[in-house]
Amino acid sequence: PESLTRDGRPGLHELYALTEERFVYLDAHRLAVIDAEAGRVVGARVLDETVERVSWTFSADRGGRFVGFARSDQQVCVWDLDLDRVDCTPGVEGLVSPGGRSVFVSDDDGGFVRLDLSNARRHELGEAPTGQGLTLAAISPSERRIVATHGSPSWPHGGPRGRVWLLDAATGAPVRTLENTVLPRNPFRPQGGTWVTWKDGSLELRDTLTGALRRREPLPEEPHRMYWSADGQSVIAYHYVSGRARATRLDATTGETRGEVP
C-alpha cells in the first residue's frame, strides 16, 4: 500500500498472513497489520532501526487482536491492536496462542515459558528437550500441543531436516520426537486432531495429541509449500515435476491423492 511506503517511494517489503482476515506488512522501517477485506490499516508502528530489526516469524490469535513477533535484540513482543500497546520480554522465539490467552517463549539457553497476556504472569515450563533454544513452530488449535524444531520452520528453504518435537503445552515435556523430518510452517489442521509432516518421500498425517502416525502418502516430488484447506478436509501440496509447478490435493482423513488443483 502506498500509505506504507517511505518518503513516497516504494521499497522492499513483505506480506505475511496472520488470519483469514488480517495480514502483516513489513519493511525495514514499518510494521503494520492490514484488514484484508476492507483493505485498511488496522495498526501500524515505525520501527526503531537500532533495536527493532524484526524477524519474519509472526503469530496471532484467531481474532487477530494480539500479534507476536521477535526482535533482533532478543526480545519477544506482543502487540495488542485494541490498545495499541506493545509489551516485550526476553527471548528469541515466541508464539501467541490461538485463543489469545498466552504467549509461549523460548530463549537461547533452552528456557521455555508461558506468559499470560491478561496479567503478564510467567509460568516456567522447564528446559527444552535438547537444553538449547528451540524454534517454536506452531500451537495446536486446542492449545494443548506445540511443535518445535531447530532453525526456521519454513518449508523447505532453510527449513529443518532433522528432529521435530511435539511438546505438551502445559508442561513443556516432549510427547514425541521425530527424526529426519521436514516441518511445514503451519502443520496443524485448523479444526484440530491432525498435523502434517514430510519424511522420506511421503506426506505424513499424525495425531495431534500423541504424534502417532495415522497415514502416509508418497508424492512424486518434495513439496515446495503445503497448506490446509479452510475446511480442513484437504491438504494442498505445491511441488515441481519436470520443472512445472503442480498442486496436489490430498484427503486429510485417508491421505489419499484426490487429483491436482487447477
Provide an overview of this structure.
This protein is mainly beta. Helix content is 0%, strand content 52%. It has a four-stranded antiparallel sheet with strand order 1-2-3-4, with no helix packed on it. It has a four-stranded antiparallel sheet with strand order 5-6-7-8, with no helix packed on it. It has a four-stranded antiparallel sheet with strand order 9-10-11-12, with no helix packed on it.
What's the quick description here?
The chain starts with 13 loop residues before the first strand and ends with a strand.
SSE order and pairing:
Elements (H helix, E strand, L loop, with lengths): L13 E4 L4 E5 L3 E6 L4 E7 L7 E7 L5 E6 L3 E6 L4 E6 L2 E4 L5 E5 L4 E6 L5 E6 L7 E5 L5 E5 L11 E8 L5 E9 L11 E6 L2 E6 L5 E6 L6 E4 L5 E8 L2 E8 L5 E4 L2
Antiparallel strand pairs: 1-2, 2-3, 3-4, 5-6, 6-7, 7-8, 9-10, 10-11, 11-12, 13-14, 14-15, 15-16, 17-18, 18-19, 20-21, 21-22, 22-23
List the main descriptive attributes of the protein structure presented here.
262 residues; mainly beta; 4-stranded antiparallel beta sheet; 23 strands; globular; disordered N terminus
**What portion of residues belong to β-strands?**
over 45%
Biggest β-sheet: count, sense, barrel? 4 strands, antiparallel
What percent of the residues sit in helical stretches (DSSP H or I)? under 10%
Q: What's the total number of strands?
A: 23
Q: What is the SS-derived class? A: mainly beta
Radius of gyration: 19 Å
Strand order of the largest sheet: 1-2-3-4
Mean residue pLDDT: 78
Number of DSSP helices?
Answer: 0
